[in-house]
Amino acid sequence: MARRNRVVVRFRAGPSWTSGPPEDQPDWDAHADYVDDLVERGLFVMGGPFGDFSGSMVLYEGVSADEVREIVARDPFVHNGVFVLESVQDWTVYVDELTPRATSGD
Known about the structure:
The protein is α+β, with helices and mostly antiparallel strands. The chain has a single domain (4-93), classed as Alpha-Beta Plaits. It is built from three helices and four strands. The protein is globular and about 40 Å long. The two termini are 18 Å apart.
């Protein structure tokens, strides 16, 4: 069984979070650009808000929990109080049906 080391980050809505979805929050464009860069670099692999907009969860890959703390500290949503960091946790994934598997011969 293949294992993958990932990092799970949980945010809660901060004092700057207004009602509505993330794209209605202050500095959405700067946050989206920041996340897009992390996605392009292969670090940010999954994320989004909870259904009640009480916070958000993000999954990182290829970086340590300490590196993720540094990455998160530079997020515009953290800087402006839309997000408040709740936790950063290493996670060893044993079952992953979302990531495409390499086929023999690759």
